[in-house]
Amino acid sequence: MAWYDEAIFYHIYPLGLTGAPAQNDYGEPVQRLNTLIPWIDHIKEIGCNALYIGPLFESVGHGYETTDYKKLDSRLGTNEDLVNFVKKCHEKGIKVVFDGVFNHTGRDFFAFQDIKKYRENSRYTGWYLNINFYGNNEYNDGFSYENWGGYNLLAKLNQRNPEVKDYICDIIRFWVSEFDIDGIRLDAADVLDFDYMKAMRSVANEVKPDFWLMGEVIHGDYTRWVNSGTLHAVTNYTLHKAFYSGHNDHNYFEIAHTVKRLYDMAGGNILGLRLYNFVDNHDVERIYTKLSNKAHMIPVHILLYTLPGVPSIYYGSEFGIEGRKERGSDASLRPALNLEDYKDAVQNNVITKVIASLGKVRQDVKALSYGGYRELSLTTKQYAFSRKLDNENVIIAVNNDDNEAWFSLPAEGVNEYLGVLSGERVKAENGTINVCIKANYGDIFLPLNSETKEYEPVQYEEVEKEIKKEEQKVKKEEVKLPDHVRPGVSYEEMTVEELQLTILDKMSKNGPVTDQMKRTVLDNVYHDSLVNWVKSFR
């Protein structure tokens, strides 16, 4: 077993969290990374024991157009600051994983600059794909090249070039020797060359025991990437999608079938396919924004922490903050936050409190990391399963209905169970436990024995209060009228919110606007789609 098998990740996008400028002027270092040191205690407090942070290294803008792999971004500070930050994480028992952007570089990277200067005579022409000195681009370089994602800002490396491969492998060695990191998350791993990844895996096996390589993979057969020769784990985008749509559509079949498909892909072995589970990250909209019913924040996180895979929390989502894409920009997904504004969140914010409780039980109960998975009960609105390790059988039940629901579940020879969140003790009768799960809630039932720990229950009344507060907030938002829209702007110039308000106003002029109609409008956060929608009214 390795540390990452019991990891609970916290994910930080540092340029955003620290409020760094959008563009790097390559000036004197500003030690913004040091402002994240207080977050280490917060990470620990909510039960996380690993940190994925990045991108970190010198770049032009958002961090994924690397200028220098060996230098902390000037907007964040110095290498000494980064050494100190990782050291403080380790002192708190928190493993640290960096973002590795090895598919492409920025245009200010030394090899690319050498090509610009010496053209055909540069010794680095083979470092990039499809350099064409008869072509050109929007930067008027006098040559063209293969990029990533259609952006010439991101020049694609030739990963089959031995010099490139050796350079990146040496960067991994440097990061370990200089910063003492515990792993790397490979950006855009689904388009990386497999021999390139095999070389990285060889270095990972060399530099540190249990050094972890996790890759960003969107879709496909995850076993292509996760195996003994390439990566230890990949991002579980398949389950990510099921998490929010399974709740919004009241369709737990989608989540359960996704889990079964992934479990079958793993050959029925939990460690046969390690997956990095998440409900949101720096590239997708916040889970609080995506959920139609905000009360589903509780069951969705119960599933995140109890289904097979390594759970991860994206900074700020433990507080229930909003975040939606605006005109294709990810800026609102990566906000600057002041931890002081949330200093009592574990005591006063029910979402934070539940996540902290889930973190504690996940660390304590090994069955949630290593136990086999078995589906026990499934309807569109109710879902129960067990995680069993040796003689420890943990039962999880969630309910996405607006009414309470009863479950009759096999107890596997255990006489009594403890509900972690409810504090309820449930006796088994004839090998079955009968449990009532409140509306839009869930619980984790641990077999009671002399070693079972006690947990501070989260009172359901707190959850109900939060739900009602959110309902009032939604109603207040929904009655806003287009007088908030800036006068004289075209539809194309409007923000997503302004377009939504305009559509609701136009709907109201055609007849009554139902709650479902309002939600349909508010759930649409795609600017071009909203522009077309508002133009469709006559």
Compose a concise summary of this entry.
This protein has 538 residues and is α/β, with parallel strands linked by helices. The chain contains 17 helices and 21 strands. Helix 5 packs parallel to helix 6 (194-207), helix 7 runs antiparallel to helix 8 and helix 10 (297-306) runs parallel beside helix 12.
Overview of the molecule:
The chain has 538 residues and is of the alpha/beta class. It folds into four domains: 3-100 and 166-367, Glycosidases (TIM Barrel, Alpha-Beta Barrel), CATH 3.20.20; 104-158, Oligo-1,6-glucosidase, Domain 2 (Oligo-1,6-glucosidase, domain 2); 369-460, Immunoglobulin-like (Sandwich); 479-535, no CATH class. The protein has helices at 14-17, 37-45, 79-91, 110-118, 162-179, 194-207, 237-248, 252-265, 287-290, 297-306, 345-348, 350-364, 367-370, 460-478, 496-510, 515-523, 527-535; strands at residues 9-12, 50-53, 57-59, 66-72, 95-100, 104-105, 147-148, 151-156, 183-186, 212-215, 233-235, 275-278, 310-314, 372-378, 382-389, 392-399, 405-410, 416-419, 425-427, 432-437, 441-447. The strands form five sheets. The protein has an eight-stranded parallel barrel, surrounded by four helices. A hairpin with a 2-residue loop joins strand 7 (147-148) and strand 8 (151-156). Helix 5 (162-179) packs parallel to helix 6, helix 10 packs parallel to helix 12 and helix 15 (496-510) runs parallel beside helix 17 (527-535). The longest helix has 19 residues, at 460-478. The radius of gyration is 25 Å and the shape is globular.
